[in-house]
Amino acid sequence: MVHSLPRDGKEVRYFSVQHVERVAIELRHHLGIERVMFATDFPHIESDWPNTRPFAERLFADVPAEEAYKIAAGNMLAFFKLQDTPMGRAVRAKAN
Fold first, then answer.
1. Is the CB of residue 36 less than 8 Å from the CB of residue 24?
2. How far is CA 89 from CA 22, 42, 82, 92, in A?
3. Where are the alpha helices (DSSP H) in the chain?
4. Contact at 8 Å (CB) between 33 and 67?
5. What b/e sequence results for 11-27 when a residue is b if at least 16 CB atoms lie within 10 Å of its CB, and e otherwise?
6. What are the pLDDT digits (tens) for 17-63?
7. Could you tell me the pTM of the whole model?
Protein backbone atom coordinates (compact mmCIF):
# COMPACT_ATOMS: atom_id res chain seq x y z
CA MET A 1 0.00 0.00 0.00
CA VAL A 2 1.36 3.41 -0.96
CA HIS A 3 1.30 5.77 2.01
CA SER A 4 2.42 8.88 0.15
CA LEU A 5 2.54 10.16 -3.38
CA PRO A 6 5.43 11.94 -5.12
CA ARG A 7 3.50 15.19 -4.91
CA ASP A 8 3.61 14.91 -1.09
CA GLY A 9 7.19 16.21 -1.26
CA LYS A 10 8.84 13.26 0.45
CA GLU A 11 12.20 12.12 -0.83
CA VAL A 12 12.00 8.89 -2.79
CA ARG A 13 14.95 6.60 -2.10
CA TYR A 14 15.82 3.86 -4.52
CA PHE A 15 18.93 2.17 -5.73
CA SER A 16 19.73 0.54 -9.01
CA VAL A 17 22.12 -2.36 -8.54
CA GLN A 18 23.47 -3.29 -11.92
CA HIS A 19 25.18 -6.48 -12.96
CA VAL A 20 26.20 -5.99 -16.58
CA GLU A 21 24.10 -3.19 -17.93
CA ARG A 22 26.10 -0.43 -19.56
CA VAL A 23 22.86 1.52 -19.83
CA ALA A 24 22.92 2.24 -16.06
CA ILE A 25 26.35 3.86 -16.48
CA GLU A 26 25.13 5.89 -19.44
CA LEU A 27 22.01 7.00 -17.54
CA ARG A 28 23.75 7.60 -14.20
CA HIS A 29 23.05 11.32 -14.22
CA HIS A 30 19.35 10.73 -14.84
CA LEU A 31 19.14 8.05 -12.16
CA GLY A 32 21.35 9.97 -9.75
CA ILE A 33 24.93 8.79 -9.27
CA GLU A 34 24.28 8.32 -5.55
CA ARG A 35 21.57 5.79 -6.43
CA VAL A 36 23.53 3.36 -8.60
CA MET A 37 25.63 0.51 -7.21
CA PHE A 38 27.84 -1.94 -9.08
CA ALA A 39 27.15 -5.64 -8.48
CA THR A 40 28.75 -8.81 -9.82
CA ASP A 41 26.12 -11.38 -8.78
CA PHE A 42 28.89 -13.79 -7.71
CA PRO A 43 28.67 -16.81 -7.21
CA HIS A 44 25.88 -17.29 -9.75
CA ILE A 45 26.83 -18.74 -13.12
CA GLU A 46 25.94 -15.53 -14.97
CA SER A 47 28.47 -13.47 -13.00
CA ASP A 48 31.61 -12.05 -14.57
CA TRP A 49 33.91 -13.83 -12.15
CA PRO A 50 36.82 -14.49 -12.55
CA ASN A 51 36.94 -11.60 -15.02
CA THR A 52 35.26 -9.00 -12.84
CA ARG A 53 38.18 -6.55 -12.80
CA PRO A 54 38.60 -6.36 -16.61
CA PHE A 55 34.81 -6.10 -16.97
CA ALA A 56 34.64 -3.23 -14.45
CA GLU A 57 37.60 -1.48 -16.11
CA ARG A 58 35.76 -1.56 -19.46
CA LEU A 59 32.47 -0.51 -17.84
CA PHE A 60 34.01 2.52 -16.09
CA ALA A 61 36.53 3.42 -18.83
CA ASP A 62 34.84 6.73 -19.73
CA VAL A 63 33.50 7.53 -16.26
CA PRO A 64 35.26 10.16 -14.11
CA ALA A 65 37.13 8.55 -11.19
CA GLU A 66 34.96 10.18 -8.50
CA GLU A 67 31.76 8.89 -10.12
CA ALA A 68 33.22 5.42 -10.71
CA TYR A 69 34.25 5.22 -7.04
CA LYS A 70 30.73 6.14 -5.88
CA ILE A 71 29.13 3.51 -8.13
CA ALA A 72 31.73 0.80 -7.47
CA ALA A 73 32.06 1.22 -3.69
CA GLY A 74 31.17 4.57 -2.14
CA ASN A 75 27.40 4.29 -2.48
CA MET A 76 27.42 0.83 -0.92
CA LEU A 77 29.53 2.02 2.01
CA ALA A 78 27.18 4.96 2.59
CA PHE A 79 23.94 2.99 2.16
CA PHE A 80 24.98 0.32 4.66
CA LYS A 81 26.75 2.88 6.89
CA LEU A 82 30.10 1.09 6.57
CA GLN A 83 32.37 4.10 5.92
CA ASP A 84 33.95 3.98 9.39
CA THR A 85 34.29 0.21 9.68
CA PRO A 86 37.70 -1.42 9.10
CA MET A 87 36.55 -2.53 5.65
CA GLY A 88 35.16 0.90 4.80
CA ARG A 89 38.37 2.65 5.85
CA ALA A 90 40.44 0.17 3.80
CA VAL A 91 38.30 0.70 0.70
CA ARG A 92 38.45 4.49 1.06
CA ALA A 93 42.23 4.42 1.61
CA LYS A 94 42.79 2.36 -1.56
CA ALA A 95 40.64 4.78 -3.54
CA ASN A 96 42.77 7.78 -2.58
1. yes
2. 28, 23, 8, 5
3. 22-26, 28-31, 52-59, 65-69, 75-79, 86-95
4. yes
5. eeeeebebeeeeebbee
6. 555 578 888 889 998 898 888 887 777 777 778 888 898 899 899 99
7. 0.74
